[in-house]
Prior knowledge:
The model is unreliable at 1-24 and 291-295 (pLDDT under 50). The chain is elongated and about 95 Å long. The strands form 16 sheets. The protein has a five-stranded mixed sheet with strand order 11-15-14-13-12, with no helix packed on it. Strands 2-61-60-59 form a four-stranded antiparallel sheet, with no helix packed on it. A four-stranded antiparallel sheet has the order 3-4-5-6, with no helix packed on it. By secondary structure, it is mainly beta. It contains one helix and 61 strands.
Amino acid sequence: MYRCVVTAWWLIIGFVMSSLALSGQVNWKEIHSPNSAGKTLVATRNGTVLVFDERSFYRSEDRGMVWRENSAGFPERNGSPVATIVEDSSGTLWAVLTASDSNVVFRSTSSGASWTATTFTVGGLRGKMSALFCGASGKLYGTFSYPMNGHDTTRVVVGTPESLNFSLLDAPQSIHLMMSRGVLFGRTTEKKPSFTDQYPLWEFNPQTSQWAKIFTPSFDGNGRYPLPEFVALLPTGERFIVASQGSSVSQNIYSSADNGSTWTLLDRIPRSAHAIIPMSDTSIAILVDFHSDNSIDTQLVKRDGKWVLAPLTRLRNRGVIAGGCIDESGTIYVVSNDGENASSRVLRLPPDRTRWQICGLSTRDALAEVFTDTRNRIFMRYRNGMLYRSDDEGVSWRTLDENLPQRPEEIGTASRLIVADDDVLYVLADTTILTSTDAGSTWKIIDVNGMHAVRLLQDRTRVFVIGESIVELSGGKVTERIQHPYSDEPEAVTSVTKLKNGVYVLHNEAMNSYLLSATAGQSWTEALIPAITPQDARISQPLEMQDGTLYAGIISNFPLNMKTLLQSTDSGVTWTTQEFTRIFRTSTHSLMTNRTGIPYFIDDVDGVVRCTPYFDGTTTYPFKNTILRGMCFNGANELYAYDYAVLYKAVPIPGK
């Protein structure tokens, strides 16, 4: 929805459906989270999708729903990416690494679950394979580089999957291979691009082992010829070319129905295409970035009396496309990268072509907020401002960036998300307040009478916009406006709590103070807070229990070994310390109740702690090797917690 691109380290997220008992021991399971990783993308015939980056790769057997990191048999590549992956007619996968300088390719007969290094021969030559393709005849074709007379020579080789005894193929030297529907094409590269020479395509005939020239059309009629970059072939024999005009800002799309003798210019695109994919007997898809508005379009060429190029669907804020592919079901997959942040993701477009979906890998970004509602939907905001929703408890995700009232760059980056009630969402983007009353499907801007919004805060189902005054929101509308003593310094308002009796509690974390108003902001008094040690300790937003008792946590940057919470029984006027028999080994924070009023909080070492009403005893749900940043409950009172980059769900241990 917003301008930044996801930036967290590689994670594989799986999902387990379960419920949380109110007592007993629990495990924690990671929730399948949006985003993804990788630079090389492959979809096999059986629906397996493989995504490779420089050091590892991920594999999904269910079209991107659940991913597993799998590198069995693959070498440590030390930053060297996979050059090509090809699937032969038997379903065997072949992988070529760009850094390999020996006659080795990698083979998998298990759709990428495991790999073996396989030595091939090209006579007595030593060199490396830089590309590998499987032709319609079942033979393997590749470009093979080897030293000769002090220089590297690149030739086309042909072999069979059974023997891997490759032989040199009589073909133009220094040729760049491409393949579509099992037909091998080549583009000569021995000349430097001057765009005044006609760069022919070459098409290989496996029956005659001969290459035939396919001349590309002049793009300006004055003897200037484009450089073919992508080729597609339909079953009807119609050919398509995406060709560069020698400029980084334009490409042409051509079609030919007579084996390349004549060409028709379909369209000129303002930016670069990154994949051309045959979709059916009569159509192809062209994946295109449009950098001007930081979006990606899928262009579909189809016959409707004539060939036309038309937008299919648009997906904002996804970086630059690195490539795409299609599986046997007609599902399109795209891998997109943000070079500046070295992040990437996998996107999936189902056969109905209605909406892009985010496949479930996670990379370089930090979770900022997580919410659930009574319908068990999950809402997430990442630190970069991206917003997501899952309707199936993490199995699949959608972005909440559609039907915005303005362009994303005009609205700004989301710095706060609040899900206050079912279907009612609020977002603070720079100084603009957005709301949705249909769970993020549509949005509108809330008019707060020109107030400069600084913060968006929540107290259970109540939402407050903080600026020169405090604006209370409900149901996506302004319901009340009150004055506050920090009108000249609204950043000082850390939280706002509205008690059941109507008293407002204003929290100033920097001053470790609470201000109280029983007159809707007409007057304010300061609460009496006991001294807290160490000096850096801070109090949290107060939590009101069902009987009106208030509790507050103590937060510190250093271990406290404390056993104390703050308690107030007079609506926050005076506070006392509440002692526990157990010791909190670090600070307590994220105080909240579940949907039946049972209080929970997070201890940075012990994990999530459940307290029997009202904080008169504790049960710990331990969490190891990470520091939790927040928690929430869905409609079934199941507990979710999240750290820097992963969402977890509490799962009861069987028999405990």
